[in-house]
Design a protein that fits this description.
- With 123 residues, the protein is mainly beta.
- It has one domain: Immunoglobulin-like.
- It contains 1 helix and 8 strands, in the order E-H-E-E-E-E-E-E-E.
- The strands form 2 sheets. Strands 1-8-7-4-5 form a 5-stranded mixed sheet, with no helix packed on it. A 3-stranded antiparallel sheet has the order 2-3-6, with no helix packed on it.
- Strand 2 and strand 3 form a beta hairpin.
- The radius of gyration is 16 Å and the shape is globular.
- The N terminus is likely disordered.
- Bound molecules: fe (ii) ion (FE2).
- The site of fe (ii) ion has 6 residues, from loops.
């Protein structure tokens, strides 16, 4: 019989949260539910690096921000390294801006919805 032992090792990017990370595989087939949870990443090239502007929701579909249902945090990674995070409450606008030096590394943003888990986008 096969060994069905479960591997509980966590994704390095997700250390400490023990939650599955959701992401859109095909933007053209994405549901409104997926679109409203996915981080929107805008990267502005500058002489000394980049400015990353982050909001939540794609194609004009935005996520609620209420006591009952909200984005609690966003985290920014450049490559494997977390370089910034911001927490939000129900009265906050969920937007953030960071200055980075990406050096050809992927820029990854994760956002946590209190009801629907962690959502990730890459740029
Ligand atoms: Fe949600």
């Amino acid at each position: 019989m096969a060994d069905l032992r479960i591997d509980n090792s966590m994704n390095e990017l997700n250390e400490g949260t023990e939650q599955e990370v959701h992401y859109i595989e095909d933007i053209d087939a994405a549901s409104d539910f997926e679109l409203k949870h996915t981080p929107n990443i805008e990267i502005i090239e500058e002489a000394s690096g980049q400015t990353v502007k982050i909001s939540i929701g794609l194609k004009g579909i935005s996520h609620p921000q209420t006591e009952e249902h909200l984005i609690e945090w966003i985290r920014l990674f450049v490559g494997d390294e977390m370089v910034g995070d911001v927490g939000f409450g129900p009265t906050n606008v969920v937007e953030a801006s960071f200055k980075i030096k990406r050096d050809n590394q992927p820029v990854i943003v994760q956002a946590l919805c209190n009801l629907h888990g962690i959502w990730e986008a890459r740029a």
